[in-house]
Amino acid sequence: MTATLTRPIWTTEYELEIVDKLISQYAPHVPVKQETRPIETQEELDNFCRFRIRGAAHDLFIVQVCAKAINQIATNDPELQLFLSRQLGDDGAHAQHTRLRVEALSGHDPIDEIQQQVKKHWEFMGDLPIRDWFGFLAFELHYELHIVASLILNKRLTKINDPNSASFAVEKIIPDEAFHRLGVVREWQCKYDKASPQQKAEFAVKLIEADEEGQRCRNSYLKSHWEITHRALGYEHEAEGIEVIYDAWRREVLAYLLDISVSQLPKLVSVSEVN
Ligand SMILES: [Fe+2]
Ligand SMILES: [Fe+2]
Hints:
By secondary structure, the chain is mostly helical. The protein has a single domain, classed as Up-down Bundle (Ferritin). The protein is built from ten helices and no strands. The site of one fe (ii) ion has 6 residues, from α3 and α8.
């Protein structure tokens, strides 16, 4: 893998351009937007709360990893410490809002269920997120960047919506997450771009190795998470193509970071592979 390309700057517009291309290539049946309606039945409410509890757990897991990483990964790196402190605060606020929204909708505080789900993230991710800088970056890629195409696909297919959650997402979550993704890309580029050709080759091998480990760790979680998400948002049978789009998007992210073309990447673990 040799560096051959000059990358455009990573922006949310650039992300959208790639994701739109992948959706029209692999899931052309997906509309640009659907009509949405609010939750109507108890079953829909239960499905929605279950889905949001998992969302809160995703964010609280990030908080727990960032707290450890500030101490263990970013030890002598104040730039990274400051970025992680922002990410920790933002994702903590997302988790807290989601917790309170589930409480308002269901009448009970879901904090214990959220923490149980967070424990599962620690179980399947193991020590990868805080093992070393590459493991930590793989964690950031999996929890912030690799999910982007599937989130955009969800947004396009959503039929059932909670207006309060939707407006919080527009005002707070979406801009925060864009900041996090850009920060992760910058963190990698700061070190990778300064490396010698030989170091770059070593960096590439280590990043792919850690990212592949992260993918294997997350495959069964993603499978069940997508089922729960699609049921809650009302489009159980219309998300065909999500695995292919997820895999293709992940390749785009990794190729961009390594400054190579997608075709120069080795074959990678697919999200559809069963462990
Ligand atoms: Fe978040
Ligand atoms: Fe985030």
